[in-house]
Amino acid sequence: MMSGYLDTNLPPRPRPGRTYEIVKRNGGWCIGRNGVFTGPLAGKAAALALCRRLQKQADRLA
Question: Count of domains in the chain?
Fold first, then answer.
């Protein structure tokens, strides 16, 4: 049996280096990574679709 105690505070899950995010700014939805953002897209659905495509491409590079 191991000595010690059970810690319920789990560390945050590591995020891969190529994770894209969607942010509302400049009158539209922008896709960003590491603080660099695209120009604003008119609709959130279009931004989500583009974000998914970019993420799939980035995951294939890893």
Answer: 1
Q: How far apart are the first and last CA of the chain?
A: 39
Sign of CA dihedral 60, 29, 22, 18: positive
Residue 40 lies in a domain: yes
What's phi and psi for 36, nearest 5 deg?
-110, 130
The answer to whether the beta carbons of residues 20 and 59 sit under 8 Å apart is no
pLDDT one-digit tens code per residue, 29-41: 999 988 899 999 9
Say if pTM beats, i.e. exceeds, 0.90: no
Domain membership of residue 49 (yes or no) is yes
d(CA 44, CA 61): 26
